[in-house]
Design brief:
The protein has 13 helices and 17 strands. The chain is an alpha+beta fold. It has 3 domains: about 90 residues, Phosphorylase Kinase, domain 1 (2-Layer Sandwich), CATH 3.30.200.20; about 190 residues, Orthogonal Bundle (Transferase(Phosphotransferase), domain 1), CATH 1.10.510; about 130 residues. It has a 5-stranded antiparallel sheet with strand order 1-2-3-5-4, covered by helices on one side. Strands 13-14-15-16-17 form a 5-stranded antiparallel sheet. The protein has a 3-stranded antiparallel sheet with strand order 6-8-9. The longest helix is centred in the N-terminal third of the chain and has 20 residues. The radius of gyration is 44 Å and the shape is rod-shaped. Bound molecules: adenosine-5'-diphosphate and magnesium ion (MG). Adenosine-5'-diphosphate binds next to β2, β3 and β5.
Length: about 450
């Protein structure tokens, strides 16, 4: 292309009016443009820097082709609106393309302004980029130049980011010479060993995945890693100002994140994430891990929840009431022990816990404890006097009933009820006064002894 060619009307000038220059990039010059016919809709014009460089021309062709493929397959990239890159072999024609204008700032601007991005926003942002990269890799398209300047953040809070600048992109399915084995593709944001060691593959999708790890680390720390290892052999996330320890809330998340970077920044490409899917999986793990929360005192939680159950759960309440009155049985047994051998012709035999038989009593209340003892008259074998105590609960109130029965046969076929009476009422969660029950038992024993007729047999 000669000077006189350049001064003549440029091909993009037919439809587009340049409003201003955008940040100059490496491959081309980008401009903010508007259509001549519709000045309200902004677009971006990219014109090649080195119009005479056959490789650069072929790359712009590739850039447009790849953007078009990604547009039709659901990748989040700018739409191509117009281009003349099919003429890349005709040196005399200045190559350009016009694409959709993505409103927002580059990720570089965003992070410089804010210092860092909160963890969840950063992880979601990289997940958004992963989606486009997954589609691209599925189409054999490698970006190869991922850096904060080539990502436009449309909405940081919504983690809405668009990958731009497919100027160094490559389609592994096409046999072209866009980068020869000996050529270095330098990305000063992160220089990867496989990119400048002779004989290594510069067209490896795993390098793109490594860049995304660096983007995540950049979002969290503002660190431009430069290299996977520094002069002391430290990975980016191990370097002093860029450690994540105090920057990430949640210890589990921090551990998972450090694990992600340890693998993602491995020097050997075989030790890094082997696919976008693998990285996506790790990112989702981090989001699923518990975020930092005010650490709860387990003892206070247990106290509160126990109070709730005590208030609302009947089984829990009855268990509390049962424990509160458990001593009654043993105090009655102690009392009986002390009577042994002191009651003349009479013996008191405790039968301990028993089955309560009064059905109306069971129907109206929850029975908590049942206890019984028999009064036996020596040599009068058939007669038995049974004294039963039942503790039952209605709501929070407990009641102690006594039932006295007499039977004239040991098998208790014919049982006659002598008394059924209330002994005590008390609050279920408080221990009942066992001495009142023992007094009642004593009275009852006395009455029973008196009631034994002379001719009992
Ligand atoms: N579609 C777009 N919408 C908005 N800004 C853009 C767009 N494309 C490029 N830019 C801006 O122009 C800069 C350079 O564009 P880029 O495609 O990266 O060119 P280069 O290949 O020269 O680096 C970007 O960093 C960005 O600020
Ligand atoms: Mg760029």
């Amino acid at each position: 292309m000669t000077e006189s060619d350049r001064s003549s009307v440029q091909p993009w000038e037919r439809n587009w009016k340049i409003e201003r220059t955008l940040t100059p990039g490496g491959q081309g010059q980008t401009y903010h443009v508007v259509p001549i016919t519709c000045p309200g809709s902004p677009a971006v014009l990219k014109v090649l820097h080195r119009q005479n460089d056959a490789k650069a021309r072929a790359r712009m062709r590739q850039e447009v082709t790849n953007l078009e493929i990604l547009n039709t397959t659901g990748g989040k990239v700018p739409k191509v609106l117009e281009h003349n890159t099919e003429q890349f072999k005709e040196d005399a024609i200045p190559l350009y393309f016009v694409m959709e204008y993505i409103p927002g700032a580059t990720l570089g601007h965003e992070v410089e302004k804010a210092g860092s991005v909160p963890l969840e926003t950063a992880v979601n942002l990289v997940l958004t980029l992963c989606q486009t990269m997954r589609i691209a890799h599925g189409q054999n398209i490698l970006h190869r130049d991922i850096k904060p300047e080539n990502i436009i953040v449309r909405d940081l809070v919504a983690s809405d980011a668009v990958m731009i600048d497919y100027g160094l992109s490559f389609n592994t399915a096409e046999v072209t010479q866009l980068t020869s084995i000996g050529e270095t593709i330098e990305n000063s944001f992160l220089s990867l060993p496989e990119r400048h060691i002779s004989g290594d593959d510069r067209r490896d999708p795993r390098s793109d995945v490594t860049y995304l790890c660096a983007i995540l680390h950049y979002c969290l720390t503002g660190c431009r890693p430069g290299n996977l290892l520094d002069s002391r052999g430290m990975q980016p996330h191990q370097r002093e100002p860029y450690k994540l320890d105090n920057k990430v809330p949640g210890r589990q998340r921090l551990t998972l994140l450090n694990g992600l970077f340890s693998r993602g920044f491995s020097y050997s490409i075989n030790d890094r994430f082997q696919s976008v899917d693998e990285l996506q999986g790790r990112l989702k793990e981090i989001l699923a891990a518990p975020a930092d929360r005010a650490r709860e005192d387990l003892l206070s939680v247990a106290k509160l929840e126990s109070e709730r159950l005590t208030k609302n759960n009947r089984r829990v309440q009855l268990d509390i009431y049962r424990k509160a009155c458990n001593h009654v049985g043993s105090e009655l047994a102690n009392y009986i022990n002390k009577l042994q051998g002191k009651l003349g012709r009479f013996h008191v035999v405790p039968s301990g816990w028993c089955k309560w038989s009064r059905d109306e009593h069971k129907a109206n209340a929850d029975v908590i404890l049942l206890w019984s003892a028999n009064l036996i008259v020596e040599a009068v074998e058939k007669l038995q006097l049974g004294i039963f105590y039942a503790i039952s609960s209605k709501g929070a109130e407990c009641s102690v009933y006594r039932n006295t029965v007499i039977s004239h046969d040991p098998a208790r076929q014919k049982v006659k009820e002598l008394e059924h009476t209330i002994v005590l009422r008390y609050r279920g969660d408080q221990p009942p006064d066992a001495s009142v029950i023992i007094e009642d038992f004593e009275d009852c024993l006395a009455r029973c002894m008196r009631s034994v007729p002379d001719d009992a047999n």
